[in-house]
Specification:
Elements (H helix, E strand, L loop, with lengths): L1 E3 L6 E3 L6 E4 L3 H4 L4 H4 L4 H21 L3 E4 L12 H4 L11 E2 L2 E2 L21
Parallel strand pairs: 3-4
Antiparallel strand pairs: 1-2, 5-6
């Protein structure tokens, strides 16, 4: 067990029963002008956590602890995207539309890439 200093309170971490789960840390969700901002998210708050997430990922890699990344992305023809999701966002910034980093939430487009500290692409 490892004691972890944290807010609002410290906790004990059991490395044998712990994994880091990194959810949707994609450019389309986090960068200014992307899909996340079109949904009304304050992307400055999201961008601010990227260095800490990268630090945690680095720690888990050094320790050999498991890391799970999730990524929301869809086929270029949107055949795997439910209609309810296709309606989300602002006109011109919906899933599949062309955004500042390519087609929004489409596999293979730069915006679907996982963020890294300092911005830019980090293909996983």
């Amino acid at each position: 067990m490892i004691a972890v200093k944290a807010q609002p309170y410290d906790f004990m971490l059991d490395p044998q029963r712990t994994a880091l789960v990194v959810i949707d840390m994609q450019r389309d969700f986090i960068e200014k002008g992307g899909f996340g901002e079109s949904l009304g998210n304050d992307v400055k708050l999201l961008e601010a956590i990227v260095p800490m997430v990268q630090k945690l990922i680095g720690l888990f890699r050094v320790k050999g602890w498991p890391i799970v990344h999730t990524r929301e992305s869809h086929a270029p023809d949107l055949s795997d995207c439910p209609p309810s999701k296709l309606r989300r966002g602002k006109p011109g910034l919906k899933i599949g539309d062309r955004g500042p980093t390519g087609r929004i939430l489409i596999r293979g487009e730069p915006g679907a890439d996982i963020m890294r500290a300092g911005g830019g692409r980090n293909r996983h």
